[in-house]
Design a protein that fits this description.
- By secondary structure, this protein is of the alpha/beta class.
- It has 3 domains: 6-71, Elongation Factor Tu (Ef-tu), domain 3 (Beta Barrel), CATH 2.40.30; 74-350, 3-Layer(aba) Sandwich (Rossmann fold), CATH 3.40.50; 353-480, Lysin.
- It has 16 helices and 19 strands.
- The strands form 4 sheets. Strands 8, 12, 13, 14, 15, 16, 17, 18 and 19 form a 9-stranded mixed beta sheet that branches. The protein has a 6-stranded antiparallel barrel with strand order 1-2-5-4-3-6. The chain has a two-stranded antiparallel sheet with strand order 7-9.
- α11 (384-400) packs across α13 (430-446) and α13 packs across α14 (448-457).
- It is elongated.
- F-type ATPases have 2 components, CF(1) - the catalytic core - and CF(0) - the membrane proton channel. CF(1) has five subunits: alpha(3), beta(3), gamma(1), delta(1), epsilon(1). CF(0) has four main subunits: a(1), b(1), b'(1) and c(9-12).
- Belongs to the ATPase alpha/beta chains family.
- This is F0F1 ATP synthase subunit alpha.
- Residues 129-343 form the ATPase F1/V1/A1 complex alpha/beta subunit nucleotide-binding domain.
């Protein structure tokens, strides 16, 4: 005889209900109404059971709910690659049901973060193909880097570029779209498909019209899928877009559940909700699957105030942040990242000596140029050295601009950023760079003499050595660009 535990509704508030009964129920167990609407047990206060509904249904007092055999989770496997799913693993891309395979397994959404004994030192660079990031703000495999900025500052474009540039790098990309409009998600999928990036990407999406508990689960599902691939020894790029909206959803759930509000009406465990997710990212030992999860949580904010609760929380639990500004984007800078206010605390240890020295040289020059620019407002005449520094700054900023959906190989990035320190570019201006940048990249890729420098660039001991090699190649460059 089949026996099933049941409970009856005592009270309901929108998507939050309380049940009586279900004697052996546990947190994160699933329940279902007679009409098939599912919910998950979020807490068990006293003798009652608190359930958050995942399907929309009008709930009445004394309505019957039965306990399901399954827990809150989804089936994970290689079949997810190229697919778009909701947080419960149901396909939303119209490509039909997901076929189970031998490699598929069930993963619960709520998992403890792996301990320090499972992790290893982050010593390998995560390449984005974007010059400004890979050279000046490098990321390591297993790093957690916050992407922060105001509206229309190019954050989504940067994330799409990063995914597209992983083609051929054996990286699995997971994009969690948290409560975005359905049209935005469709556009993202179309761009990834057009650039053949969907084959190694899993999209986990909830639209803004869905119930709050389902939206709340989106990043948990993304982490569970990421952990599956990490345990296969794969490097994973995880994008959580965006956690600001996720925090608002959790605030709505908490206030409905009568949790005591704290700062900005967020509940007291708001920090924990994000920290225990991001702690699941990292670089792991081979005995624990190997592989890595590089996390890029995203948050949109008002640039006039950085001190609100969620941005400061996220800054404190990540290994740095990339600050995007719409004002820089409107000036033609792409990616529109403010170098002076962006930080990477882990990535520099993954760079070799030459890239480290080059990065330091450029940062010092940009800082010096900012000081000189301030002084130049009060002086009619500038020394030759000051003029050269300001000119080099302009050339470097032009070289750091990058068209959407393009990748620049790492050795070429170093060569481009060393060129302003050679006599070849001494008499050139920004317009020259704008006109000939792509020709220069092509020349250093295909021309026999220049390609030899490109090949050796990564093994050079210092940026001075590379600048010297480029100085000697000046006549060849002049000949090509005639």
């Amino acid at each position: 005889m089949d026996q099933t535990e049941v409970g009856y509704v005592i009270s309901s508030r929108d998507f939050l209900i309380h049940l009586d009964g279900l004697p052996t129920i546990r947190v994160n167990d699933m329940v279902e109404s007679e009409a098939g609407a599912r919910g998950w047990v979020s807490s068990i206060p006293g003798s009652q059971v608190e359930v958050l509904m995942l399907d929309e249904e009008k709930i009445f007092p004394n309505q019957l709910f039965k306990k399901l055999s399954s827990r809150l989770g989804l089936s994970v496997g290689n079949v997810l690659l190229g697919r778009s799913i909701n947080p419960l693993g149901a396909p939303i891309d119209g490509k039909g049901p997901l076929l189970s395979s031998k490699t598929s397994s069930f993963s619960e959404l709520e998992q403890p973060a792996p301990g320090i004994e499972t992790r290893q030192f982050i010593n390998e660079q995560f390449l984005t193909g974007i010059t400004l990031i890979d050279t000046l703000l490098p990321l390591g495999k297993g790093q957690r880097e916050l992407v922060i900025g105001d509206a229309h500052s190019g954050k989504t474009g940067f994330l799409i570029d990063t995914i597209v540039n992983q083609r051929g790098a054996n990286v699995v990309c997971i994009y969690a779209s948290i409560g975005k409009p359905a049209g935005t998600v469709r556009n993202l999928i179309d761009v990834l498909k057009a650039n053949k990036a969907l084959d190694y990407t899993v999209v986990i999406a909830t639209s803004s019209s869905e119930v709050a508990p389902l939206i709340f689960l989106t990043p948990k599902t993304a982490l569970s899928v990421a952990e599956y691939f990490q345990k296969q020894g794969r490097d994973v790029l995880l994008i959580l877009d965006d956690l600001g909206f996720h925090a608002k959803i959790y605030r709505e759930i908490a206030l409905l559940g009568d949790k005591s509000p704290g700062r900005e009406s967020y509940p007291g465990d708001m920090f924990y909700q994000h920290a225990h997710l991001l702690e699941r990212a990292g670089n792991f030992l081979k005995s624990f699957g190997g592989g890595s999860i590089t996390a890029l949580p995203v948050i949109e904010l008002n640039m006039t105030d950085f001190t609100t609760l969620i941005p400061t929380n996220l800054m404190s639990m990540t290994d740095g942040h990339l600050l995007f500004k719409s004002t820089l984007r409107s000036q033609g800078q792409n990616p529109a990242i403010d170098l002076s206010l962006s930080v990477t605390r882990v990535g520099r240890q993954t760079q070799n000596r030459m890239f480290n020295l080059l990065s330091t040289r450029i940062r010092q020059l940009l800082s010096q140029a900012t000081d000189y620019e301030t002084i130049s407002r009060f002086s009619a005449e500038l020394s030759a050295e000051t003029q050269l520094t300001l000119k080099r700054r302009d050339l470097i900023m032009e070289l750091l601009k990058q068209d959407p959906l393009t990748a620049v190989p790492k050795p070429i990035q170093a060569i481009l950023l060393c060129l302003p320190f050679t006599t070849f570019l001494q008499a050139k201006n920004k317009t020259f760079i704008e006109r000939y940048k792509n020709i220069l990249i092509d020349a250093f890729t295909k021309h026999p003499r220049l390609a030899a420098i490109t090949k050796q660039a990564g093994n050079m001991q210092s940026d001075d050595e590379l600048i010297k090699a480029l100085e000697a190649a000046g006549p060849v460059l002049d000949k090509i660009l005639k």
